[in-house]
Amino acid sequence: MASDRLSPLPGQVGPPDPSAQPAGHHARRHGASRRDFLRTTAGTVTLLGALSQVFGCSDAEVGGDGDGSGALEGFIVPTPEAIGEMLNRLPDAPFVMLDLFRIREVPDYSAHPELAPAIPVSGRELFERYAADMERHLAEIGAARVFLADGGPCLIGPSNERWDAVQMVRFPSPRAFLALATNQEVIDGLPHRFAILEDSRVFPMAERPLR
């Protein structure tokens, strides 16, 4: 239903203006891939700069301050260092992203009250809408969610640690993941991600045989 779709940021409805595309798009036109571009300082600044514009925070605050006590509390989006490490570590081949999500009981739209649903809903319901909306973006880059489950307390681990949802997404390549991360619609939807999630962990993994 159309009413279940998450609202975009004001002023960002419809296709983005080609003249205003991030530098990564211009680099690709000149023969450089997003993967090579985002390995550069300019590339990570472009991506993290887009995130900081959305949330009105500094680049350092986007991924927390290292202990989860940064201005945005918890870990919701990657730091430039983490992006660079992933690109250097993973081969240009299919890989799986393991995601652990801790969902707010009540969504926090204090940063963007204009995006809050007209009828209050739980963080869990909004998570389901957000996840469903991501399906088309994943399909556009040849990726797919291959596992989704409700979480809970750890069998092995701290007794007070919980993850409310666990998913695995298979990407055709790191380049495809970067195409998703720099998709303007996905960036426009990030305020919903911050409103819904209290914390998260994301593990990019390349499959290998038993040695």
Structure, explained:
The structure is a single chain. The chain has about 210 residues and is of the alpha+beta class. The protein has one domain (about 25-205): Alpha-Beta Plaits, CATH 3.30.70.100. Helices cover about 35% and strands about 20% of the residues. The chain is built from 9 helices and 4 strands. The protein has helices at about 25-30, 35-40, 40-55, 60, 80-90, 125-140, 175-180, 185-190, 190-195; strands at about 95-105, 145-155, 160-170, 195-205. Strands 2-3-1-4 form a 4-stranded antiparallel β-sheet. Helix 3 packs across helix 5 (about 80-90) and helix 6 (about 125-140) runs antiparallel to helix 9 (about 190-195).
CATH class: Alpha Beta
β-strand amount: 15-25%
The overall pLDDT, averaged over residues, is 78
- The ordered H/E elements are HHHHHEHEEHHHE
List keywords for this structure.
18% strand, globular, Alpha-Beta Plaits, 211 residues, alpha+beta
What's the structural blueprint in terms of helices and strands?
Blueprint: H1 23-29, H2 34-38, H3 41-55, H4 59-62, H5 80-89, E1 95-103, H6 123-140, E2 144-153, E3 162-171, H7 174-181, H8 184-188, H9 190-196, E4 197-205
Antiparallel strand pairs: 1-3, 1-4, 2-3
